[in-house]
């Protein structure tokens, strides 16, 4: 069993903030900011696309509950980031889908480094070309 399955089964300790039949939310052991929560489906799946849509949708419903709680809590929280690393190259270290939710505030030290070159607007033709590739792929999905 993976570590998050073991947490869901109660075999490993976790600081749980929410649990129901299909999902669980607990504190990340290496928080970006105090109150950094991970929401997981109880069903094991590595990638978001491996998850039944109901479980994926439910994970987002739980995220919304956690988000509201963070904002209402005594933790410092002036905004919230949600982050899902879907695949190794995308930064996924634990092979069980999990959604990071963490409080943000002014000068908290967190930032994403994005190369300026990457964000240069590519122009409509290239955007449309990428859009076509996605739409063509969608048409091929079940
Ligand atoms: P990711 O890099 O998106 O796969 O995130 C994995 C996250 O899981 C990291 O932020 C870790 O700090 C966190 N993590 C790993 N093991 C545990 C654990 N036993 N309990 C809580 N969080 C964990
Ligand atoms: Zn698992």
Give a brief outline of the structure.
The chain is an alpha+beta fold and 142 residues long. Helix content is 30%, strand content 18%. The chain has one domain: HIT-like (HIT family, subunit A, 2-Layer Sandwich).
Topology:
Layout: H1 3-8, E1 16-19, E2 23-27, E3 37-41, H2 53-72, E4 79-83, E5 99-104, H3 124-139
Antiparallel strand pairs: 1-2, 2-3, 3-5, 4-5
Bound molecules: adenosine monophosphate and zinc ion.
The site of adenosine monophosphate (AMP) has 12 residues, from loops.
Give the DSSP E fraction (strand runs of 2 or more residues): 15-25%
CATH topology: HIT family, subunit A
The CATH architecture designation is 2-Layer Sandwich
How much helix is in the residues?
Answer: 25-40%
Neighbour order of strands in the largest sheet: 1-2-3-5-4
Please state the structural category: alpha+beta
Top CATH class: Alpha Beta
Describe this structure in words.
This protein is an alpha+beta fold and 142 residues long. A hairpin with a 3-residue loop joins strand 1 and strand 2 (23-27). A five-stranded antiparallel β-sheet has the order 1-2-3-5-4, covered by helices on one side. The protein is built from three helices and five strands, in the order αβββαββα. The model has no long low-confidence stretch (mean pLDDT 97). The relative contact order is 0.16. It has a single domain (3-110), classed as HIT-like (HIT family, subunit A, 2-Layer Sandwich), CATH 3.30.428.10. 30% of the residues lie in helices and 18% in strands. The longest helix has 20 residues, at 53-72. The structure holds adenosine monophosphate and zinc ion.
């Amino acid at each position: 069993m993976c570590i998050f399955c073991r947490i869901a089964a109660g075999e490993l300790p976790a600081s749980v903030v929410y649990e129901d039949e299909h999902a669980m939310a607990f504190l990340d052991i290496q928080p970006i900011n105090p109150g950094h929560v991970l929401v997981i489906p109880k069903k094991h799946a590595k990638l978001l696309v491996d998850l039944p849509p109901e479980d994926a949708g439910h994970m987002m419903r739980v995220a919304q509950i956690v988000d509201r709680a963070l904002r209402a809590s005594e933790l410092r929280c002036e905004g919230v980031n949600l982050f899902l690393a879907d695949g190794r190259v995308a930064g996924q270290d634990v092979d069980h889908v999990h959604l990071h939710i963490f409080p943000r505030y002014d000068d908290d030290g967190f930032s994403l480094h994005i190369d300026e070159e990457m964000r240069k607007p590519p122009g409509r033709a290239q955007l449309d070309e990428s859009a076509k590739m996605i739409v063509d792929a969608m048409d091929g999905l079940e």
